[in-house]
Structures are given as C-alpha cells and as structure tokens.
Amino acid sequence: MKKQILLMLFIALSLQSIFSAQPNIIIILADDLGYGDLGCYGHPSIKTPNLDRMAAEGMRFTDFYATAEVCTPSRAALLTGRYPIRSGMCHDKYRVLRRTSIGGLSKDEITIAKALKQHGYATCMVGKWHLGNYENVPEYHPLNYGFDYYFGLPHSNDMNPTKKAPKAATRRLDQDPQWWAAPLYRNREKIECPANQSTLTRRYTDEAIKFIKQNKGKPFFIYFAHTFPHVPLFSSKKDSLRGLYGDVVEELDWSVGQILQTLRDNKLDKNTFVFFTSDNGPWLTHGLAGGSAGLLKDGKGSTYEGGMREPGIAWFPGKIKPGIVTHELACNMDLFNTCLTLAGAKIPDDRIIDGVDMSPTLFGNGKSKRESFIYYRGTKLYGARFGQYKAHYITQPSYGTNAPVSHNPPLLYELGQDPSENFDVADKHPEIIAKINEIVEQHKKTVQPVKNQLEETIQENKQ
Fold first, then answer.
1. Helix (H) and strand (E) counts for the chain?
2. Among 342, 371, 400, which residue terminates a domain?
3. Does any domain span residue 383?
4. How many Å apart are CA 14 and CA 454, to the nearest integer?
5. At a CB cut-off of 8 Å and minimum separation 6, what does 343 contact?
6. Whether the Cβ atoms of residue 66 and residue 303 lie closer than 8 Å to each other
C-alpha cells in the first residue's frame, strides 16, 4: 500500500512538473479591426489604455499580417498554420462561408486546440467561429476541432438579418436589435436568439474569465474571437470621442484589461502567453461604422497593406522583455507553430505547415524565421513580400466594381520607406523582383488542388 501511495505521489508530482512547464496560451482576435484603430498604433481619439499597457509590458509588432483579407480564410490559417488555399477555405466569388453554406474546415486539419488538447491542455473557444455553420452541418461545431468548451456565434453577426432590417442596415450607427437574429450557443445548445449584441463583449469576457479560474490548476488554451468591430456595431459603452465605432473598440480594450487582470490576480501572468491581433483590416466602405488602417493603403478585402497588416501585441511577463517594438515579419499562421512549440507539442510533419515559430523574435534570442509572405485574395495569388519589399502581381480595390489589374513586371514597394505603397521602385530593383518571383514559383509548386469548401449551400445541394 505504501509503495502504491508513493507511486501515485510521484506520478502526481511529475504531472504537476510537466504542467507547470507548459504555459497557458490565450489568443485574442478582433474582427475587422484596423491597423490604425488602437492608441499604441497611433489613433488620436480611440482610448485603448489596456492594449497600450499590454504593448508597453510586452512586444508590439509593426509588420504582423493576417493570412487573408477576409475572415473565413484568415481564421482557418490562424488555427491550422496553413495558407487557406491548402484547406479549400477561400473562394474568389463568395470569399467567406455564408449562412447557408454546407462546407467548412476539414476534420483532417489539425487545429491549435486539437494539438494542445493532446498535450494536456484544457481548451476553450469564445466568440465568432465562421469555419463552418454547425446549424446546417453539426460536424463543423468547434467542439469537434479540439475545444472542450464553446460559447459564441456560428458566423458573422450580420448574417441573420430580420425582415425589419432596412437597406444598408449594417453601416447604420442607429442600430436596432430587432434588425438582427444572430444565434448564441453554449456548447451545442442555442441559448439565445436573437443574441443581445449590446452585451456580447461583456458576456464573452465573463465566459473567458470563468474558464481561466476553473482551469488555473492545469495548462489551458483560450481562443477568444470577438464578434466586433464587425458590423453591425453594438456596445454597452456610450462615451467615445470616435462615436459608436470607438465605443466598440474601447469595450474590446476593456475586455483585454479584464483578462490580463484576472491572470495577475490568480498569479498566472508569469506563465501565460497572450497574443492580440485582428482577422483582417477595417471595412472602409462602411464609413463611420468602419475603422482605420492608419497610413496603410485600402482595407478589408484587399491585398494592399491596409487589408492584411494588423495590430499584433505579444505579452508574456518575465519571458518577453517589456516595451519592445519589432519590425520582424510575422503572420497569424505563425501562432500555430509558436503555440505548439511553447506547449512542447510536435509540429505535424505529414502535411505542409506554412507557419514558423516566433520564439526567436518574442524572446530575443535570434532573427525571425519568416523571410517571405504570400498575399492571396481568394484562391488567386496577388502578391508576395520578401524582407522589406512587396511585389504586386495583381491589384484590385477591396470592394466595388473595379476589375483586377495584372502587372508584368510586378509593382514593387519598399515597405520600410513606403508603407502606404505609393512609389513603385520595380525599375530600380530587378534583382529583388527576380528573388520574389523565385519564392512565388517555389510556393506554387507546393499547392495541390483540394475541394473548395465555400461553394455549396443548402439551396444548391437540394437542386
């Protein structure tokens, strides 16, 4: 009996040692937040003291990218570490999964949650999913992708308009809750429809905090994907100088502050990696209901910098030196490799993983492993970046009737000197264009045709 007790104690201590070595991980994702929408990224009237403090206590990226210009492919890339062209989660016409879609992220894909769960992590998703409408096809529910707990919406908050919604209701600043019928789920149960969107950010935050407190004795992973500032805009806050959009962003900032304070209060801050970013750029065509890309060109839906370069803030007290601003190249696919590496999980070797581990950048022990980045719009390759240089093979504004324009030779911008992409320097750097062409051709050789997940809908399937 004594030997059994000692053995059990040894196993318990061993597990505790393993778990204490594994950091908690939280990814906070805004929806349609622009590069210029935060105080620490230069916005003059939106107050974001908590995100500003997060950046001051951690690392702020100047060159961090979403892997797609709209939400479905971007979220697929973040969770799988792969360009969405590899998973069929992008489309040239539809661009995102619709409410009537019957496609979704393949169950063969390995998500961050699935990988971490296999290494002892408790896993939680709060917020917007948009990787398969589980109301149409239950197999696309987040609980089938490695998450132990889920609280949120199946897709964007504008995808369930009611008959009361007027024309162009999404961009209105005088929102009426009766215009929308977004369904809110806890795990597999629909608990509210229409969801009270004015309270969503606060309820999301409460759910995340509850999960932290319930699982503070073991490593946990939270994917906190906010519904906002995607339109229609709702907030319980009403005093921003920037109006309703500012209220929404400032409430997101409040949420981040609550999460970080909970970690401090529970003495988890020194063992928790937190990363904040957005799924794509601001929806500029929505006027005051949309955000700002700052000095970057264009916004959501485009492969110009404003459509895909995003705020990126990393926080890990005692591990990441405070007050660091890095110009190293990184993207949301890199969160896959970084999270798995921090957890001691193996990077899958049975498929192409496009992400790289950001640890050298985060912890100051080396240069970034990412030298290049490919810009896709839907299934088409529009551009590529190498170092500070970006080549545009095709350009097209984010939304509207403007047709795509091909460039041969490609346009070339030196982003360090010209982040607004105003001055083409292609004629001065043929060697850079040759190098980027080589990178693009090597990438294309690795892309294999897969079933597109965004095409089929309930109606089409019945015909």
1. 11, 15
2. 371
3. yes
4. 46
5. 22, 23, 25, 115, 116, 119, 121, 219
6. no
Classify residue 450: in a domain, yes or no.
Answer: no
Residues linked to residue 151 through DSSP beta bridges, in sequence order = 126, 186
Model confidence, pTM? 0.95
Non-local CB neighbours of 124 within 8 Å, separated by 6+ positions: 147, 148, 149, 150, 207, 208, 211, 215, 220, 221, 222, 223
Both 418 and 282 in one domain: the answer is: no
Q: Which helix (H) or strand (E) holds 57?
A: helix 49-57
Q: Which residues are catalytic?
A: 71, 130
**Which own/partner pairs from 259-262 qualify as long-range (CB within 8 Å, at least 24 positions apart)?**
259/26, 259/28, 259/205, 259/208, 259/209, 259/212, 259/224, 260/50, 260/53, 260/54, 260/315, 262/209, 262/212, 262/213
Cα–Cα distance between 444 and 423 in angstroms, integer?
27
- Crossing angle of helices 49-57 and 243-265, in 10° steps, is 50
Domain residues for the domain of 440 are: 373-445
357 and 437 assigned to the same domain: no
Nearest to 222 by CA among 126, 312, 357, 129: 126
| CATH, residue 387 | 3.30.1120.10
Q: Are residues 394 and 333 located together in one domain of the fold?
A: no
Together in a domain, 363 and 393: no
The count of domains in the chain is 2
Quick one: tokens of 226?
Answer: 């906010």
293 and 412 both lie in a single domain: no
> 34: domain CATH number?
3.40.720.10
**Dihedral angle computed from the Cα positions of residues 232, 238, 244 and 246, in that order, rounded to the nearest 10 degrees:** -120
Note whether 393 and 339 are same-domain residues: no
Q: Which residues of 207-241 are buried (b: 16+ CB within 10 A; e: fewer)?
A: bbbebbeebbeebbbbbbbbbbbbbbbbbebeebe
Which letter, b or e, does each residue of 266-293 get, where b requires 16 or more Cβ atoms within 10 Å of its Cβ?
A: eebbebbbbbbbbbbbbbbebeebbbbb
Q: What's at 47, amino acid-wise?
A: K
220 and 304 both lie in a single domain? yes
Same domain, 250 and 384: no
224 lies in some domain: yes
For the cut 80, the answer to whether the pLDDT of residue 318 exceeds it is: yes
Residue 8 lies in a domain: no
Cβ atoms 103, 455 nearer than 8 A: yes
pLDDT by residue (tens digit) across 375-433?
Answer: 999 999 999 999 999 999 999 999 888 899 999 999 999 999 999 999 999 999 999 99
Q: What is the pLDDT of residues 160-200, one digit of tens each?
A: 999 999 999 999 999 999 999 999 999 999 999 999 999 99
